[in-house]
């Protein structure tokens, strides 16, 4: 039977929204699939995604069945699908490394991480034993060593990776080459929400430039009350997040702004907001006759479900790439679903490139002999559709 065997690193709010979404769309017919961009990607529906392994470090999650762990504290995202199936997956202890910021201990337990005092499992062994196809990485911002550990485990176990966090793997030349050489696809980095702060900021900046305006200053300030925002109050963990979010906007301008004229970043932690993110965005530009204009926007949305639809398409695309032996970063998929892809595109171009890639890869997968590619040991075809 066709399936996508999914491993999850980090059973936080995004993992919760993803699993709830998979079950929600699996149990609703196609007339009710609002919120989902593709009913199918290369013949894979949402129902083909099957969680087979999960890793975390929090004592309220490790050792518990996955369908319970996604609802355990400190997760606080909206519950839109309370009934989840019994996956037969127990959350395993991952290597903690730099995953848990020190300041977490100063906040109440129901709002922050509480690491378990347990030895880490061997991630490579678990990935191999569970025959995982794709690992989705949902670790906290600033987990450079931990993300690299999971990326290396994917390479060693022959598993494709979808990297939703701003630690640069797909967009780092050395890591990208490692995946290419190993014959494994990777989609990353830093998931872009369906309709969130980044895409709004990009599209508005581009609109002004396309109408002949000249953007002079801009900011994007974000607040939220989940552990992602709590983690990010430690500014030392933010370097790559700021880079990722700023590049996402700069890449849409004809002339990138001087650093002093652009400020994009997570800005504060407001506990009672929970998983509600609020974005305050301002753009200032010169119009006809050098006339100053400005725009202020306030956007609010539930953060984690907002990225679920993108993750579902990135995961299915990674499996489709595995099926036809496409290796290394999948640029069109990343340009659409990620903030910091190896190659930035305009968003309308990224949408067309994504659809063309899916269509070509679907044909290629149908022509590719099976079995193939399980654990990276099958026939590897060059990146004909990159
Ligand atoms: N819309 C979005 O929500 C969105 C958008 C872009 C990027 N992201 C990124 O996705 C990531 C996940 O977001 P989230 O809201 O689920 O975060 P979260 O804080 O809810 O979850 C992170 C999980 O990782 C676990 N963890 C910490 N160290 C670990 C380790 N070494 N191994 C395994 N697990 C570990 C934590 O215990 C927690 O369960 C964050 O980096 C976030 O910035 C989210």
Overview of the molecule:
This protein has 386 residues and is an alpha/beta fold. The chain has helices at 13-26, 66-69, 123-129, 144-157, 173-182, 197-210, 227-231, 239-250, 303-323, 331-337, 347-367, and strands spanning 4-9, 49-56, 92-93, 134-137, 160-163, 185-188, 214-224, 262-269, 276-286, 292-302, 328-329. The chain has a 7-stranded parallel sheet, with helices on both faces. The protein has a 4-stranded mixed sheet with strand order 8-7-9-10. The protein is globular, with a radius of gyration of 20 Å. The protein binds nicotinamide-adenine-dinucleotide.
List the helices and strands and how they pair.
Elements: E1 4-9, H1 13-26, E2 49-56, H2 66-69, E3 92-93, H3 123-129, E4 134-137, H4 144-157, E5 160-163, H5 173-182, E6 185-188, H6 197-210, E7 214-224, H7 227-231, H8 239-250, E8 262-269, E9 276-286, E10 292-302, H9 303-323, E11 328-329, H10 331-337, H11 347-367
Parallel strand pairs: 1-2, 1-4, 2-3, 4-5, 5-6, 6-11, 7-8
Antiparallel strand pairs: 7-9, 9-10
The structure holds nicotinamide-adenine-dinucleotide.
Nicotinamide-adenine-dinucleotide binds next to helix 1, strand 2, helix 7 and helix 9.
């Amino acid at each position: 039977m066709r399936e996508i065997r999914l491993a999850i690193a980090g059973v936080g709010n995004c993992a919760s929204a993803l699993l709830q979404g998979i079950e929600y769309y699996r149990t609703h017919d196609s007339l009710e699939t609002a919120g989902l961009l593709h009913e199918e990607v290369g013949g894979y529906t949402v129902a083909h995604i099957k969680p087979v392994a999960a890793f975390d470090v929090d004592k309220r999650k490790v050792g518990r069945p996955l369908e319970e762990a996604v609802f355990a504290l400190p997760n606080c995202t909206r519950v839109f699908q309370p009934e989840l199936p019994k996956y037969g997956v127990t959350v395993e202890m991952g290597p903690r490394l730099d995953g848990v910021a020190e300041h977490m201990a100063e906040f109440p337990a129901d709002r922050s991480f509480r690491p378990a005092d347990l030895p880490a499992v061997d991630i490579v062994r678990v990935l191999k034993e569970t025959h995982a196809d794709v690992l989705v990485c949902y670790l906290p911002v600033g987990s450079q060593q931990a993300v690299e550990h999971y990326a290396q485990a994917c390479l060693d176990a022959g598993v494709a990776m979808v990297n939703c966090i701003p630690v640069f793997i797909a967009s780092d030349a050395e890591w990208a080459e490692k995946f290419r050489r190993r014959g494994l696809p990777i989609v990353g980095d830093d998931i872009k929400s369906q309709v969130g702060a980044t895409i709004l900021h990009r599209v508005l900046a581009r609109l002004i430039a396309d109408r002949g305006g000249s953007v002079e200053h801009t900011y994007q300030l974000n607040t939220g009350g989940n552990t992602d925002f709590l983690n990010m109050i430690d500014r030392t963990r933010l370097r790559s997040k700021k880079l990722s979010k700023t590049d996402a906007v700069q890449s849409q301008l004809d002339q990138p702004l001087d650093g002093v004229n652009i400020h994009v970043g997570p800005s504060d932690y407001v506990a009672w907001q929970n998983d509600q993110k609020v974005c305050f965005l301002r753009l200032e530009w010169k119009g006809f006759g050098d006339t100053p204009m400005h725009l202020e926007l306030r956007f609010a949305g539930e953060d984690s479900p907002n990225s679920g639809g993108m993750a579902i398409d990135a995961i299915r695309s990674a499996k489709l790439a595995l099926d036809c032996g496409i290796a290394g970063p999948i640029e069109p998929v990343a340009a659409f679903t990620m903030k910091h892809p190896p190659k930035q595109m305009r968003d309308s171009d990224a949408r067309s490139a994504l659809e063309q890639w899916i269509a070509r890869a679907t044909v290629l997968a149908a022509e590719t002999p099976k079995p193939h590619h399980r654990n990276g040991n099958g026939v590897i075809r060059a990146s004909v559709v990159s």
